[in-house]
Amino acid sequence: MTYSGNTTRASKCLMLLALAMTILTATVEPQAAEVHKTTFKLYPNPPFASCFGSNATADVAVVRGNLADTLHITGQNFQPNLAFDLFTIQRTQLLPDGQVNPNFTNFGLAWYQTDLESDQYGNINATIHTILLDQIFGFDPDVTLAPTNTFHVGFWFNNPKDAVPCGFNADNPTPFNGQHVAGPNAMISVPNAKTNLGPLCTAPVKQGNTYVCNINQ
User: Fold this and answer.
1) pLDDT tens per residue across all 217 residues of the chain
2) Are 155 and 187 in contact (CB under 8 A)?
3) H-run or E-run covering 213
């Protein structure tokens, strides 16, 4: 009887331990590993694609660094010797499938990053080093602009006249170059279909019915 009682108590202890482990496993979610590198494509702004190359492609790779990240952009099949201006921006005018968003209003906060130029063969190749993944933002207390992320990447025609054959009005330029007299957007990233965030956010977390980026990454 003594052995039977000890065995029963030991079995109960094991059952309680197993139950506790099950509850702990079910309630504690493992933290996602930090993303070291992300890659994504830029999509053409449909009305102006033929003015830089209807078959043009642009690929972006971003590698996380200790103090700053590295972005490398490569492009092919562009019309040769075209100048562009690369920005990180708050919003894109494209839907996840690359089509124009009919509800788009404006790009929001834009952050000038570098100049681009297609070479004589129609290739683009450029690298920048700055804060990019998960934490890129700007703010301006003068206009009560709270910290605002720019998780999208895109580039604009530097010369507005380059987009005139596609219907752009060069007398009404955009501010997307150093002189604030640029052409329209040429290519840009698209939002994630699930989170609606740009590709520079690699650590989305859900808050209510929307997603935000985990700035602790």
Assistant:
1) 444 555 555 555 455 445 444 434 433 344 567 899 999 999 999 999 999 999 999 999 999 999 999 999 999 999 999 999 999 999 999 999 999 999 999 999 999 999 999 999 999 999 999 999 999 999 999 999 999 999 999 999 999 999 999 999 999 999 999 999 999 999 999 999 999 999 999 999 999 999 999 877 6
2) yes
3) strand 210-213
pTM score of the predicted model: 0.84
**Of 133, 139, 142, nearest to 109 (Cα)?**
139
Instruction: Please give the biggest Cα pair distance in the chain.
Output: 99
* Interatomic CA distance for residues 35 and 134, integer angstroms: 10
Kindly state the tokens that stand for 6: 């000890």
CB 71 within 8 A of CB 127: yes
Q: Is 171 helix (H, G, I), strand (E, B) or coil?
A: coil
